[in-house]
Amino acid sequence: MTTLDLANVQGFVIRGYRLPYAAYEFLRIDDAGRARALLREVLPQVITAAKWSEKPESGINIAVSHAGLRALGVADTSLDAFPEEFRVGMAARADRLGDTGESAPEHWEDCFRDGEAHVLVMVSAKDDAALRGRDERLRAAVAEAGGLTVVRKHSGAALEGGREHFGYADGFSQPSIEGSEFEPQAGEGAPPGKDGKWRPLRAGEFLLGYADEQETITPAPPPDAFGVNGSYLVYRKLEQDVVGFRRALREAAATYPGGEELLAAKLVGRWRDGTPLDLSPDRPDPALVKDITRGNAFDYRDDPDGLRCPVGSHVRRMNPRHSLPFDGKLVNRHRMIRRGITYGERLPEGAEDDGQERGVIFMCLQGSIARGFEFVQSQWANGGNAFRLAQDQDPIVGPQDTHGPAKMTVPGAPPFFVGPLSRVVTVRGGEYYFTPGINGLRYLAEG
């Protein structure tokens, strides 16, 4: 049984804080010594994964890009040990990720396009006042330290009911991690084997320096004081075309026998309140959503053709669980811890586009970006081959502009085809970050 050094793991890697306000400060390092001094100053504010008796009102977490580590003066022996995808950064992987057209890096916010978002400081808080207070303290520390420049700030806040801008409840089914000391829930770990029991995933799928699902230690850059307890963070600002999504759904539902709400559920794989189609294909079930022992306890094995939950639906693509042509062992190697928050105000139903930015700050954590985020995005979201769906793409996050007119298949007798689909989520910027353990942050601060 793995034992995690929770006091040396940054907290958001292991737990979702459920703090509904957030700010993301991006810093460029201009002077390594002053940047290290800032790290020493703010390190006590970092929330760790150690269990708390009372939820904090606010706190921070810190991640650094490869360019940022170089700017901090990290030795080449450490820098060169990182995997290629992290070394080159997200913009250089655009073709692999389907970041084309309006999502291409040349259209991104300049700090991401130019690779200057060296340090990401994530501020989490219980309310707006607590967020402003913590963020102002951070800004004051940056100004006093000198040697760093704030190049961008993103702010977010949870929408009412925990929903995102397309109207779906979000945040279900995070992977449970062995050794985290948090009680695993059915549906959140590895799909059940012959014993019918779900189990936590091995910690090395998410944390460096621990055994993964293949009993191999996930490599950490040397020395161990720097790399062990770290994780790779993917950060993406995703803008949502709410009017475009609502229009496409409404037009498709006009000829769909089940009506608009059922079709909306078919696109995502859950009803808008979060009820899984696999467990309740005919109607939302609020009691099921609230029941942590049942709400995620499904694995698609008895729905191979997707008659309840379409094989090409968003949540089934993101986590196929145990369904043909997949088995649990394959899926376990491509899991991610998802974090993030909505930004922008909710657009009222029936309203025209008001020109305001709104969307999701998407983040995920894993022990390998290539095997985690990049694989899921390129193989499961941007294409259909893995699901025997030819060129069908994810109806929510697929680029929809790489193979001509796009569609989604809703199985049935006869099947129903939703399309032509257009892009409803556009990437406005992003980067790959290393989230050091507390030990790693101390190592960086000490130079």
Description of the structure:
With 447 residues, the protein is α+β, with helices and mostly antiparallel strands. It has two domains: 6-237 and 430-446, no CATH class; 238-332 and 384-428, no CATH class. Helix content is 26%, strand content 18%. The protein is built from 16 helices and ten strands. It has helices at 11-14, 32-42, 66-71, 76-79, 84-88, 94-97, 110-113, 128-145, 224-227, 242-253, 260-268, 286-290, 314-318, 328-332, 370-381, 438-446; strands at 21-29, 58-64, 119-125, 148-157, 231-240, 337-343, 359-366, 406-410, 416-421, 425-435. Strands 2-3-1-4 form a four-stranded antiparallel β-sheet. Strands 6-7-5-10 form a four-stranded antiparallel β-sheet. The chain has a two-stranded antiparallel sheet with strand order 8-9. A hairpin with a 5-residue loop joins β8 and β9 (416-421). The longest helix is centred in the N-terminal third of the chain and has 18 residues, at 128-145. The radius of gyration is 21 Å and the shape is globular. The model has no long low-confidence stretch (mean pLDDT 94).
Spell out the key features of this protein.
single chain, 447 residues, alpha+beta, 2 domains, four-stranded antiparallel sheet, 16 helices, 26% helix, 18% strand, globular
In brief:
The protein has 447 residues and is of the alpha+beta class. It contains 16 helices and ten strands.
Q: Quick check: average pLDDT?
A: 94
Oligomer: single chain
Report the portion of residues in β strands: 15-25%
- What Rg do the Cα atoms give? 21 Å
**Which geometry do the CA atoms define?**
globular
Q: What composes the largest sheet?
A: 4 strands, antiparallel
Number of strands: 10
Number of helices: 16
The class by helix and strand makeup works out as: alpha+beta
Number of domains: 2
From the N-terminal CA to the C-terminal CA, the straight-line distance is 34 Å
Q: Work out the helicity level.
A: 25-40%
The helix/strand order is: HEHEHHHHHEHEHEHHHHHEEHEEEH
Low-confidence parts: none
Order of strands across the main sheet: 2-3-1-4
